[in-house]
Automatic annotation (TrEMBL), chains A, B:
Keywords for the protein's UniProt record, in alphabetical order: Membrane, Transmembrane, Transmembrane helix
Sequence segments annotated as region (Disordered): 1-32, 506-527
Domain Anoctamin alpha-beta plait: 52-184
Molecular-function annotations in GO: chloride channel activity
Gene Ontology CC: one annotated term: membrane
Location in the cell: Membrane
Residue intervals passing through the bilayer: 229-256, 262-280, 337-361, 381-399, 420-439, 470-491, 617-634, 646-666
Topological category with respect to the lipid bilayer: Multi-pass membrane protein
Principal localisation: membrane
Species this chain originates from: Circinella minor
Highest rank taxon of the organism: Eukaryota
Sequence ranges assigned to domain Anoctamin transmembrane in this UniProt record: 221-682
Skewed-composition ranges (Basic and acidic residues): 1-10
UniProt-recorded name of the protein: Uncharacterized protein
Length: 739, 739
């Protein structure tokens, strides 16, 4: 009995077990932790377990074909491995059972300071070698040393601490990590840090108040959730501000009833897109420098899945790394293209079907159940297409893994691209279809319908159909998006517990488990374990949450950018709608991260990564769409003349060149402008090199280093009288002599 | 009398004057020089003046409105200034009179070792701070110090020595230079080093023998003439090799009588151009690294002409630099565009006229003097157009100066671009005209001619006209180019001396100057001054030569590349002709530099600079020309149908996108390939930082630096027994209990 409960009852402080958790080496520093611990619970009970950095969810099958013993032994073996790994790298841990479900354990991980310090130092040095934290060099030489390799963990931000612990957990063994990952360990279900409720409350509170998010707020997020998340919010905020341009112009056009699709508006939008993207790149650089993550992508984290054909010595670092011939990689990438194309093809067919259905129902159909059938397409968009997209995603994921990417970053890049294709199709395909096929050739559909004896009332096919679809996407789409993103999880959160409870109740009634239940009940009497259960409840809640997926949020924004840049000439209010949506989105995402997802692992990143490229692609496309629409739907154009397609293409040709030209001008003129981050970087490098030089050459050479303009003054003195050597007047007069 | 001759008679070694030339500080090292001197003449006479690094030609007016005294005093004053400058920076000098022409002096400059050493050290450190000589870090740490800041001038190459002396001469005063330049000093006519005849002989000898120039040969050139020249030859050689592709394919097509203009050939050529350019970029990087000039363009040499509005502190180095607002610069650049456009417009009109004349005479005219008139256009191309181009060049030079460029590099870049426009027009305009205007619409000219009663025999306008013009440009053009480049100067060299002599003879006869002449005659008796005169003759010869202009050579090659990439579908043998021409060109340029131009100042450069961009532009254009020709002149095309223009444009649209796509693929797949220079650079940086780190942290931290994989082994021992804390089997079985 006593044995059995060991994992349930808390470790009493002072008991051998408790002290045992802290190695003598680290014991002193651990006291620090308890004092400096910012974690929510500060009692001396179980929950005062210094601080829980990560929770590993350890799930193993309790039923199956095999006999229970085999299952059990398997699980034991795995848990043993896990524990060994943890203790090898010197992490403290405690195991708790998930009381609600069988075959699930929580391993709470804490990193003692000594281990943290060590890893931190290693990281700092690696960063330095990679040239990250460049602007640190701008400090005075004296501070510099302290600054660069300062391992005072009290100054660490939450995000930094968690990131370092994560490194310890996930790095491969030869890198000195525990090599724990869901790929390697079959029963490790997931690995995530716990939310800091205090911070979250404060965050949501402040943001719900202030209408404008400034860099300080972003830095706060960065300190708590890491750069990757911070960059998303920075991007969103920056984009929000830039949107005001199109919003204002667009509303003016609508108010004063200029005809939309004007060439001028198209041109302005084109320039806006180009300038915005270039400016964001700069902003990104600046932030990356401020946040000390410049070049951090250079630290290419080997994918644990990447094995390579053979091991070779890395030419740069001289370490052994798995190697695979470039040709093989390239060929694989090439070969996976058809696969992606296939997926995209099927997806577009489905999107097409839904769209045609919608078109038919909205435009032609007048038969029975009109009212009800009218909403079927929307359902299709909400339920059917997303599922298809998910299928596509998992398919391309397989392909992407097959491509054998060396590093996480490259894997992520190619995966993002593939995902983007799907979203691109879903978002724009139908609009392209309407604009370029349905409106020009739509009228030919009529006869067939009559033949098929389908009762229909045909409204003339015209430009408004396109506008209607666009509005449908922007307004309805965004509302639906918001609903699925925010309301759904909210409802789920409200419901799930109830459901759970009901299930619980049932269990209570069936006698088999009652005994253990009662034990718990009575145990809940004493304070400690009430805290325990309180803490566990918190864990339960967070375990049930899904992981935060940053892709979807980025995709949403970039797709929206597409609507603005490509179609806002069709409906000038696009910008305005988006600005409103994003203002809410910004808060919504904050809430989402805090309440409806697990706390994300604080990865580092240099910026928004591949999304820039995608936005540039969209801008290029916008030059095509806007030109073609501006021509096609111009009052003076007879859309049904045989020449129309050709002239449309001419318009496209023209505007594409215009786009390239504009981009050229914008870039070159921006490069001419001084760039803060460049200056800081070069300054830092210069100082660093000077320091290095001083140490290399010794102090006596400082004259050279301090300023390269220390002219050759010494020789001057020895030479300056040599003027008298030539009697100048004589020389000159001689030169005249000849005459 | 004795006074007068001081500047003519040599300084006798051992005489006070001679010793005087060398400051006591440097005297020891100077003996070194004499021994290590590689200069041609090694006698103890005047010409054994250790070695003449540079010659300043000092020209001043001897006749004019002002009285002779004023002129004389002016000249004196200027010479005084010059001499002061020289002696301030500690350069030795000697003045000789140009005996042939009055009012001309030669100032022979020699840099004593002490000064050289000092400047060299400064340069080395500056280079290091700019990250030049990156691959030097790859040496072992011990050598590194010696290596990076090695100021042993015996190891200096000719080019390096001359460059450093040049720096001393031209750098501004606050940079510690003499600030001598033709802009600043009115009477300083030119400044150039003397040829090393031995080297030149060897060079031409070897190259005339071997058919293939390898990297060693290039490195030799680099060591003697500096990187800028070396890069030109590297480019030429590399281009020559790549040309073999089009040459072979082209000849095959001609031999086996495939019809030219085939789409396949066009496609192959497009891919070839793209790949070639990308590969050259790599080659360039590699060479830049090998030659230690990577990033050397970062050392932005302030233009002496650049004054700026006010002085500000440079944010990076903290030095005072002239500043001008970016907007002003941008606006000026923008404003100078119309000026360039105007120039280009007039030039194209002239080119157009010459071309139309040619067209008329070749195609239609059958009147009197047919034979003679037939050659007038060629004369136009040889004499008239070049002069016009020169006028244009000087016009854009004015504009370029007005643009206020901060650095030499940027000035050069924009100037090159402007020059390129002119050459582009001259080279291709008529071909475009034939291809896109004359052939499609040419037949409409006929009636007008008949109206004007001009006797003409009209051959049907067809595709062959274009081919004819192309062949005319490539064959005739290149022959003429060769003639003007090589034969003309050769002839001049042969003639000029004779002319001079004749003039000389005349002088002899007129009594006034006879006296001084005779003196010289009798002086020539003794050996020393015979050497003197020998040396002076050498100087005279070189002073008469023009400066080497690298632009023209680059332009020639890039324009030729344009013919190959844009038009080789029109005449498949283009590649072959060019390969032959270039093989000769390569040798011809060598001879030109040695014999027909002054020795160029050995500037550094990272590559061919702006020409890459121009070649890329040409490749883009080639996608347009080849597509349009492939469509226009396809047998199946009826060139006179009204649809032709439109479909041509469609073809262009298509192939432009194809081009962009190809470039994308090529670039990305090349980036995937490992790149030697990248590896070397990153290796170097890593090593450098490690060294820095060792010095910063002290030896005790090496464990971290040497390998980042020194895992947290220390803690392992202290922790590894913590496994026993949990009885795993117990835990698992508990997890099962619930069932």
């Amino acid at each position: 009995m006593e044995e059995k409960n060991k994992d349930q009852h808390p470790i009493k402080p002072g008991s051998t077990e408790f002290t045992h958790l802290f190695p003598p080496s680290g014991s002193s520093s651990d006291n620090e932790i308890i004092t400096t611990s910012t974690s929510v619970e500060k009692q001396t009970s179980f929950v005062s377990f210094p601080r829980v950095d990560y929770v590993i969810v350890f799930k193993f099958p309790t039923k199956g074909k095999e006999k229970r013993e085999t299952l059990q032994s398997k699980a034991q073996q795995q848990l043993d491995i896990l524990i060994n790994k943890l203790s090898r790298v010197g992490l403290n841990y405690q195991i708790q059972r998930d009381k609600r479900t069988q075959g699930t354990l929580f391993v709470f991980i804490t990193c003692p300071n000594i281990v943290l310090k060590k890893e931190l130092k290693r990281e700092r040095i690696r960063d330095f070698l990679l040239g990250i934290r460049a602007n640190e060099y701008n400090k005075e030489d004296e501070d510099e040393k302290k600054d660069l390799f300062d391992t005072n963990i009290d100054l660490l931000t939450d995000a930094e601490r968690l990131r370092i612990v994560y490194e310890i957990l996930t790095e491969s063994e030869q890198e000195g990590g525990a090599n724990i990952s869901t790929e390697v360990d079959p029963f490790v279900d997931s690995l995530f840090p716990l939310h800091n409720d205090e911070f979250n409350k404060k965050w949501i509170h402040t943001w719900s108040k202030k209408s404008f998010i400034n860099d300080e707020d972003l830095t706060q997020i960065r300190n708590h959730f890491g750069e990757k998340i911070a960059f998303y919010f920075a991007f969103l905020q920056n984009y929000l501000l830039w949107l005001s341009g199109p919003a204002i112009i667009g509303s003016c056009i609508t108010l004063f009833g200029f005809k939309s699709l004007s060439i001028w508006f198209s041109l302005i939008m084109l320039i806006w897109s180009v300038v915005y993207i270039e400016m964001w790149k700069r902003k990104e650089q600046t932030l990356a420098l401020k946040w000390n993550v410049r070049h951090c992508s250079k630290h290419e984290k080997q994918r644990l899945e990447f094995k390579g054909d053979r091991m070779v010595m890395d030419e740069i670092t001289g370490e052994q790394v798995p190697f695979i011939s470039t040709w093989k990689i390239l060929s694989r990438r090439a070969m996976s293209l058809p696969g992606v194309a296939l997926g995209a093809f099927f997806l577009s067919i489905i999107v097409g079907c839904v769209f045609v259905l919608q078109l038919f129902l909205h435009e032609y159909y007048t038969g029975p159940f009109r009212q009800i059938l009218h909403y079927t397409p929307t359902i299709g968009y909400v339920l059917f297409i997303p599922t298809m997209t998910n299928i596509y995603s998992s398919w391309v994921k397989i392909l992407n893994n097959w491509e054998m990417h060396k590093t996480e970053s490259s894997w992520e890049y190619f995966y993002t691209q593939k995902i983007f294709i799907a979203n691109f199709l879903v978002a724009y395909l139908s609009l392209f279809f309407i604009g370029w096929i349905y409106i020009p050739f739509g009228d030919h559909v009529l006869p067939y319908l009559t033949e098929l004896h389908i009762s229909h009332s045909h409204t003339k096919v015209d430009f408004n159909r396109l506008r209607g679809q666009l509005i449908y996407f922007i307004v309805t789409g965004q509302i639906i998006g918001f609903a699925t993103e925010m309301l759904l999880p909210y409802v789920m959160n409200r419901l799930l517990p109830k459901v759970k409870k009901v299930a619980h109740e049932k269990k209570k009634n069936d006698p088999s488990s009652s005994s253990s239940e009662e034990e718990e009940e009575e145990k809940d009497k004493n304070l400690q374990s009430r805290n325990t259960t309180k803490f566990l409840k918190k864990v339960y809640r967070q375990v049930d949450l899904p992981e935060y997926n940053i892709y979807t949020d980025y995709v949403e924004m970039v797709i929206q950018f597409g609507y603005v840049s490509m179609f806002s000439t069709v409906w000038p209010l696009t910008g305005l709608c988006c600005i409103i949506n994003n203002w809410i989105e910004l808060r919504g995402d904050a809430i989402k991260i805090c309440k409806y997802t697990r706390r994300p692992i604080p990865y580092r990143s240099e910026g928004v990564g591949p999304w820039i490229g995608n936005m540039e692609t969209l801008t290029w496309l916008s030059s095509i769409t806007m030109a073609s629409f501006a021509y096609l739907f111009h009052p003076s154009t007879n859309i049904h003349s045989p020449y129309t397609p050709i002239f449309t293409i001419l318009a496209i040709l023209l505007s594409e060149h215009l786009y390239v030209f504009i981009r050229l001008i914008v870039r070159s003129s921006l490069n001419a402008l001084p760039n803060w981050s460049d200056i800081m970087i070069r300054k830092g490098e210069l100082r660093m090199k000077k320091v290095w030089l001083q140490r290399l050459l010794g102090r006596n050479n400082e004259e050279f280093i301090s300023s390269s303009s220390s002219s050759t003054t010494t020789t001057t003195t020895s030479m300056n009288h040599s003027t008298s050597f030539y009697d100048v007047s004589q020389v000159i007069s001689d030169a005249f002599k000849q005459e």
